[in-house]
Amino acid sequence: MGFELRDHTADIAVSATGDSLESVFAAVADGLAAASCDEIPAETGDRFSLSVTAERREALLFDYLDELIYLRDTRAELPADHRVDSIAGPASADGSSADGKPDDWHLEASARGVPLAAVDAREVKAVTYSEMRLERVGKGEPGSWEAYVVFDV
User: Fold this and answer.
1) Which residues lie across from 46 on neighbouring strands?
2) Half-sphere exposure (CA, 13 Å, Cβ side) for 23?
3) 3 state SS of 151
4) Which domains are assigned to the chain?
5) What is the pLDDT at residue 46?
6) Mean pLDDT score of the chain
7) How many distinct helices (H) and strands (E) make up the chain?
8) What is 71-136 written as a DSSP string?
9) For 63-96, how does the pLDDT look when each residue is reduced to its tens digit (9 = 90+)?
10) pLDDT of residue 93
11) 34-57 burial by CB neighbour count: b if 16+ within 10 A, else e?
């Protein structure tokens, strides 16, 4: 379980696996940090928390990664060592609540903010929906998850 950086035409992609939805989200975020610099100092930076809400599971992954890029730019810190504590989605199978309106997906996570001055960072401009894939794989319960995300560099 983890991530692998993949070359992509003019961009970079992260392929990740995890034994849970939380672990595959964290693995993709760790891939984003690895795509941003070659070495991340282990002893630098403080942890911070973040919450993200979106209308679909794939949109939650997109919005989570977009928020990490936004926080990198506004805090001047590279988010690293990602932990996704929980992901909650719609309770019903069709994704709607008792009133017929769709429930949202919600994520609680944390990361260590490494000052950009402490790393030789490359700019990852944005996350894209291009070729994005997030799916459960394997048979049996609970199964594992795979994700593929392309970043604009």
Assistant:
1) 113
2) 13
3) strand
4) 11-91+102-152 (3.55.10.10)
5) 95
6) 90
7) 2, 8
8) HHHHHTEEEEEEEEEEEE--SSTTSB-TTSSBPPEEEEEEEEEEEGGGS-PPP--EE--TT-EEEE
9) 999 999 999 999 999 999 999 999 998 865 555 5
10) 54
11) bbbbeebeeebbeeeebebebebb
- Smallest CA-to-CA distance from 153 within 35, 62, 25, 27 is with 35
How confident is the model over 34-61, as pLDDT tens digits? 999 989 988 889 999 999 999 999 999 9
| Angle made by CA atoms 81, 12, 129, in degrees to the nearest 5 | 90
The one-letter code for the residue type at 128 is T
* Confidence check: pLDDT of 122 > 90: no
Average pLDDT of the residues in 96-123: 84
Q: 146 with 15: CB under 8 angstroms?
A: yes
Query: Per DSSP, what are the bridge partners of residue 47?
Result: 112
φ, ψ at 10 (rounded to 5°)? 65, 0
List residues bridging with 79 in a β-sheet: 113
d(CA 4, CA 62): 18
Model pLDDT, residue 43: 84
DSSP letter (8 states) at residue 61: H
pLDDT computed for residue 8 by the predictor: 84
DSSP type of residue 53: E
